[in-house]
Amino acid sequence: MSDPISAELALLEEAMRALAAGFADLPPAERPLDAAAARGALLEAAHRMRDNFPYHHPLYVGQMLKPPHPVARLAYAMAMMVNPNNHALDGGRASSAMEKEAVAQIASMAGFREHLGHLCGGGTMANFEALWVGREQAPGLAVAASAQAHYTHGRLAAVLGVPFRKVAIDADGRMDLAALEELLAAGGIGTVVATLGTTAAGAVDPLPEILALARRFRCRVHVDAAYGGYFTLAASLDPSARRAFDAVAEADSYVVDPHKHGLQPYGCGCVIFKDPSVGRHYRHDSPYTYFSSSELHLGEISLECSRPGAAAVALWATQRLLPLERGGALARGLDDGRAAALDLYETLVRDQRFVPRGRPDLDIVVFAVRARSASESSARARALFDAAAREGLHLALATFPRVMLEAAHPVDRWDSGELVCLRACAMKPEHRAWMPEIVVRLDRAARSLQL
Q1: Does 281 share its domain with 357?
Q2: Distance between CA 343 and CA 365 in Å, rounded?
Q3: Which among 299, 346, 257, 279 has a CA at the least distance from the CA of 64?
Q4: 4 pLDDT above the threshold of 90
Q5: Model confidence band, residue 31 (pLDDT cutoffs 50, 70, 90)
Q6: Average pLDDT over residues 106-112
Q7: pTM tops 0.90, yes or no
Q8: In angstroms, what CA-CA distances link 324 with 69, 104, 302, 446?
Q9: How many structural domains comprise the chain?
Q10: What's the gap between Cα 174 and its chain centre?
Q11: Which residues contact 99 (CB under 8 A, 6 or more apart)?
Q12: Could you give the residue ranges of the DSSP H alpha helices within 187-238?
């Protein structure tokens, strides 16, 4: 049986030598390396890194953590020989071109015919830029997002100095359309944030209806698909989610995190604008001739300055290997994760000890522990979280409002307005094959608590 570490190191060495050959005409400028001291530091770091949960393994099904593809890891490490900076063409000529190509592929995946976009440090920074452009387009108007949208939208609005309005959710954890209409009718909203894949439950907001309401009241629509964006490639979505992803290109801006389902190292977020002319907000001088130029300077369309070109190289190489197309290997991996989530959901439906919140929109499963009261159910969930960890199964805990669970009847008495639930992100393709083992370990953990 081959050693995967040795195989990766051999590929990395070959790639690094190929890169070095491109600079063979330079005079030697070697930096001496004290191999013994370097070995000691590296091995000490390796031992320190053992103090982690096994994020890369299928038995870790808790938070939104997915290992990068080996090609992404290797391409990133290879590019670090040069350490390009994609703030300016002077700092990263090749990696800037690769970033533009990779971002254009993401824009095409989402359905945009024209776009302006770039990579950034992650979803928070990407959403910040989208909300900042929204503020520049509609000064003084508020940002509205659902009560299940990522908490950073409220924080980002505060940083931008604009009001923030929470929109109520329905029983599925999606934005309530009647509540949104009432809010928009009252006036003062500039940007509505639709979430395609909420962090807590993976819920997909009804984007077509949100777009219709926002257009009626002349508001921008920003799509936060940091988690769910790649699911536009999936073949297994339910009709409501499919309709939402098919409408993305009608939004004004869009965010996706390649460091989630795009198989990239942290941090790699992406923000895309439908209208390229919004680039004028980034410039201090006249932008129109510049942005019509084929030589797009990424530093002029980003609020960040220094950005790792290695992230662009890793993304480009991954998309070269795994094109962003329906039916491709990356898309099949998404469908495998969703199939794993649906398998777990159906298992939980049949188990009287647990109450799943509802059929998952994507690949996140939320379930409560059946009990007499909400407080007792929450306590049991916390205990089961610890018991599962003792079985080598790593889940997550998340707190949900009563409205999202009441219809499932997990408790007899609501002595609290919220419930602590267990949460499983079946986002690794391997989770499909590992789901029977995950269920066995969950059962052992529950039996240890006499549930």
Answers
A1: no
A2: 10
A3: 257
A4: no
A5: confident
A6: 98
A7: yes
A8: 14, 11, 24, 40
A9: 2
A10: 18
A11: 86, 118, 119, 298, 309, 312, 315, 316
A12: 207-216
